[in-house]
Design goal:
Strand content: 25-35%
CATH architecture of the largest domain: 3-Layer(bba) Sandwich
CATH class of the largest domain: Alpha Beta
Shape: globular
CATH topology of the largest domain: FAD/NAD(P)-binding domain
Number of helices: 16
Helix content: 25-40%
Radius of gyration: 23 Å
Length: 427
């Protein structure tokens, strides 16, 4: 015989969205239960590498001072890889580290573990190593969950179970994840001394860098990233599964060649690999958010709701996850009945400007999903830069004609103009 329990709210998933939701509920005196299927908090959370502090401050003023953070980001870089060359745009602004620094790099295992422990000390009940098997429904309303032989009832159930949310699907709020709407992310954490990181990336102690990388993926649609941590760097790629299959290349081989690129190997080559993993990443942006994020007794938050933005210049997910968790908690706290929770949740998402943020970048997936952004334009840009900087005794008639000649070697003028117009419309 199983046991029967009751809580005010059950949260499925102990990532930043789920913990933020439970924490705000506990602050308001609600009895919140968080259930995590991994045996260790953060053990299955491989996404991310950066958190924007405004979200932590909304959760609790001054929280960033206690958080498990790595380095305060003061350098934002975009690197475009050619075959054996690279073009890098570097934005350096030490003011971003003043006061409450804008963002920090993080290691998800330590950050998620810290956030969960912080929430537990404030009244959240958290159990890990438990697989939720079913949602319990009565009269069209979700009233609890079933795990093994045990049933747990609640006034509300919140799904924070990630990009491939089985419970949002079972609740009828979304369909199975389509391959074209996600990317496969591969990330490796490479250990190296703090002084080495600071020397190689031109940083002062405590300062950090994020680098978005375009190209270098063997013609597969996608890109890469690099984050500096206290004593490691996080390096990875995010690739379109359909493009990987069409090219007939193994993801592991793409990543290994990516690491060996002449612009990347010198900064990570002598480091020690300490962690390696893969995961799905939502790539659809606003278009990937389900039409409905609730039903009576049930809400969807975080990655499960599609709250991820990838512009190619930055990747945002953790701050949006925390905002959605706060919005769900506030809706539950302030609602007068189970019927009003869902509509109030949508209003809270708007009040916290999460909805507006998603809509602002709604067109970017069309730009980043253009195959030529990964396969043609990186090489074209590097060839143009080579022409500008190479001195070999040859003198072109005019620079603009030389640039146009290089462009035509890579792409037709029709495609170039069409891509330019689509890119302009997307932003």
């Amino acid at each position: 015989m199983g046991e029967t329990y009751r809580f005010d709210v059950i949260v499925i998933g102990a990532g930043p969205a789920g913990i933020a939701c439970a924490y705000k509920l506990a602050q308001a005196g609600k009895k919140a239960l968080v259930i995590e299927r991994a045996n260790r908090i953060g053990g299955k959370n491989l996404t991310g590498g950066r958190v924007y502090t405004y979200a932590l401050e909304l959760l609790e003023p001054g929280l960033h001072k206690a958080a498990a953070l790595e380095r305060s980001v003061v350098r934002e870089q975009v690197m475009v890889l050619g075959e054996n060359s690279a073009v890098t745009m570097d934005y350096y602004n030490p003011d971003m580290a003043d006061g409450v620094p804008q963002s920090y790099t993080i290691l998800r295992a330590s950050f998620d573990d810290w956030l969960a422990a912080y929430a537990e000390k404030r009244g959240v009940v958290l159990v890990d190593g438990i697989q939720v098997e079913e949602l319990v429904e009565k009269d069209g309303r979700i009233v609890g969950i079933k795990a093994g032989n045990d049933v747990v009832y609640a006034d509300a159930v919140v799904a924070a179970d990630g990009v491939n949310s089985l419970f949002a699907e079972r609740a009828g709020l979304r369909t199975a994840v389509a391959a074209h709407s996600v990317g496969v992310g591969v990330k490796e954490i490479i250990a190296m001394p703090a002084a080495t990181i600071e020397s190689r990336f031109n940083l002062k102690p405590g300062q950090g860098l994020t680098r978005m990388i375009i190209g270098g993926t063997q013609g597969v649609i996608g890109g890469g990233f690099l984050y500096t941590n206290k004593e490691s760097v996080s390096l990875g790629v995010v690739l379109k599964p359909e493009s990987v299959a069409a090219n007939g290349i193994h993801i592991y081989d793409i990543f290994q060649d990516f690491k060996l690129h002449p612009a990347l190997r010198p900064v990570i080559g002598d480091g020690e690999s300490v962690e390696y993993g893969a995961h799905l990443v939502s790539e659809a942006g606003w278009k990937g958010v389900p039409n409905k994020l609730y039903r009576p007794g049930f809400l969807v938050i975080g990655d499960a709701a599609g709250f991820v933005i990838n512009t190619g210049l930055s990747i945002r997910g953790i701050d949006l996850a925390i905002l959605s968790g706060i919005a769900a908690a506030q809706a539950i706290i302030n609602s007068e009945s189970v019927e009003t929770v869902g509509p109030l949740y949508i209003k809270e998402l708007e009040r916290l400007k999460l909805t507006q943020t998603m809509k602002l970048f709604a067109g970017w997936p069309e730009l980043t999903g253009n195959p030529r952004m990964s396969t043609v334009y990186p090489g074209m840009m590097n060839d143009m830069m080579h022409t500008l900087f190479a001195v070999d005794g040859q003198v072109p008639e005019k620079i603009n004609k030389a640039m146009l000649k290089i462009a035509r070697q890579h792409v037709s003028m029709t495609d170039l103009l069409a891509d330019g117009w689509k890119g302009f419309r997307s932003i």
